[in-house]
Request: fold
Amino acid sequence: MSVPLWAWLALSLVIAAMLAVDLFLHRDNHVIGFREAAIWSAVWIAAGLAFGVVLWLWQGDEAAGAYYAGYLIEKALSVDNVFVFALVFTYFAVPAAFQHKVLFWGVIGALLFRLVFIFVGAELLETFFWTAYVFGLFLVWTGWKMAFRHDAEMNPDRNLVVRLVRRVVPTDARYHGDRFFARVDGRRVATLLFVVLIAVEATDLIFAIDSVAAILAITTSTFIVWTANAFAVLGLRSLYFCLAGLLRRFVHLHYGLAFLLAFAGVKLILSETPVGKLPIPLTLGVIVGTLAVSIGWSLVATRGRQSAGDGPRTPAAR
Reply:
């Protein structure tokens, strides 16, 4: 799929405009309630679905099908991101009013990381056929870990990147309002909120590798992979505030996500065998069916549970 430069520029402007609007509307660092988060989640999801329609009218049903499959996988994996963000915010006792700012800049970092991974991954798959086996086995292994080691404990403060930043950058173990840097005793130091941002970015880096590899199993079109990632990630902040109090209901979702990662890995491996690439309609069907079963199973299993006060569940150890 050949995409002209103007399409990349137009997409970049749209994403920048969305981020600017979001930053402007939340410049006062107010606490985001469920109703506001639900409205914004609906807006981001509508934007993501609408882009698929645009892609269908412009490039045809195959491109649109690949986009929707990638978007659904990324959106589903975003729920696991929410588990991690909830854990990080709880661990560092981040005030509710400052959480949106951390997520906003975290999303910008996530977009940049994913852009790099997409181009590097797509180039490797196009140049060296054997990278399909490497990526495929990695996804199968990640799926196995998610299914059978989902309750492994995670300590954000022990993250290698967080420890490195604290060693290199002078930090203060306190919050200074919504600032990432402040002056303490005459010298400029990073605040605890900056440490939280680094923890969010460092953990999301692992998620980025998984999600990009999973979408590359569907298509190696960098434009489709990037747009699917971008529109899913843009709604990550609103998704967090929507689901933060409901996470305990999704007790079996990780099995569905694990299956989808393993399925993507097998699909990628098969693409370099006589079987070839699996049809997009089949891929979409597997994704929708798996998510429906795992979510339905979770809701039935937790029927009647009071989820709002349960707090975050331990996330997947990836």
Observations:
- The beta strands are 181-184, 187-190.
